[in-house]
Amino acid sequence: MPPEQGVQQLKLTLLLLVSVILAGCSIAPKSPISLFESSRSSVPQTYRGVFHIHTQYSHDSSGSIAGILETARENKLDFAVITDHNTMDAKNDAGTVKHSGTPLLIIGNELSTTDGHLIALGTTENFESPINPQKAIETIRKDGGFSVLAHPVCEKSYWKDWSVRDFDAMEVYNHACDFYDANKIGFGIKTILFSPSLFARFIVREPREALQKWDLLMVERGRVISAIGALDAHVRYRILGFPMMRYANTFPIVTLYVSADSLSEQEILKNLASGNGYFAFESYGRADGFQFQAQSASHIYKMGSAAESETPLTLTVRVPRKSEIRLIHNGKIVKKTEDSMLSLDVRSPGIYRAEVFLNGKIWIVSNPIMVQA
Q1: Residue 130, preceding peptide bond in cis (omega within 30° of 0)
Q2: How far apart, in whole angstroms, are the C-alpha atoms of residue 17 and residue 195?
Q3: Domains assigned to the chain
Q4: pTM (2 decimals)?
C-alpha cells in the first residue's frame, strides 16, 4: 500500500472514531440489564420531565435553550425546569420566546442565600444576592410560588441552617454531587466512551444520606416535604474541546413523574410542590405505571396528601415490573417484597413512602403519604 493511501486511511479511521464519540454512541459493551418502556396509558395524566438545568445565563455553564429542547425531545420528555444562578434571563432568550408545545419549558431561579442554594419557582420576584433564606421562602410563598432546597447534603455546597421553616421541597438526589465526589479522570473517560444510558447507570450513587435526612425532617416537622430528583445539569469542564458534563449524558440520569390535570406550568408546579409524583433513575427502564396510594372505605389518597388513619387504611405500591419494593414508615422499612405489588394495612400514624430496586440498584423513589392520628 502506498504511504499516502495509508495516511489517508488513518485519517478516515480517526475521523470516524471522533464522530462516534461526539454522537454519544458507545463503543463499550452494553449492560446485560434490558431496558423497557411501559405504556403511558396505564397512568393517565402523568408527565415526565427533568429538573434543575443551567444554561449560558449561569456563570458555570455554556448550554443553550436549543440544546435543552433537542435533548428533551430525544428523551421524550414533557417538561424541563431551568434554574440558572440568580437570574431568570432564560425566559427572554429567543429560543424560549419562540418555543411552544412540548417540551414545556419552566423557568425558575437558583438563589444564593446565606445558608445555601434555594430554588424559587412560580414567582417573578427579583432577589438580592446573597439573601436570607427565610426571607426568600416567605417572599416566594406570598407570590404564590414554591421553594426547593438545592443539593442540601452535597459536601461541596451543603445547607447550613436546618432551622429554616416552610420550604416546600428538597433535592433528595442531585447528580452534580455525584460528579464532585467522582474520580474526575474516570468520569471523563465514561463521559466520552459510554452511551448516555450506560453512563447514567455507572455514575449514579444511591442517595442514602439525603433520604435519611429527608425522613428525619418530615418526622420532626410532622408534614410532607416534596422530594425532587435533580440533574443540576451544566455544559462545562472540557477535555480537548469536549464537555465532560453535557445535556445528552445528564438528562437520562433522573426523571420526575408528576401527576397533573394538564401540561401547564401552573399545574406542573402545583403538583411538584405538593409531592404528587415520584422520581426514577431511568437507565434501568421507564417507570411509567408506578403507583403509591392509601385507600380507606371511602377515599383514595394520592402521594403528597394527608390521610386520616381510619381502620382499615390500606397502602398499596404497584410497579411496572417485578422488583424489590420497600415500604418505609418514619424512615424504617416495615415491609419488603420481590413482586410487582405490595400492600399493607396500617394503623400507626406517620410518614409512609416507597422505594423500588432493580438488581440491587435504586430505581424509583415515591413521594410520601402522611397518615394522621
Answers
A1: yes
A2: 14
A3: 36-285 (3.20.20.140), 290-373 (2.60.40.10)
A4: 0.86
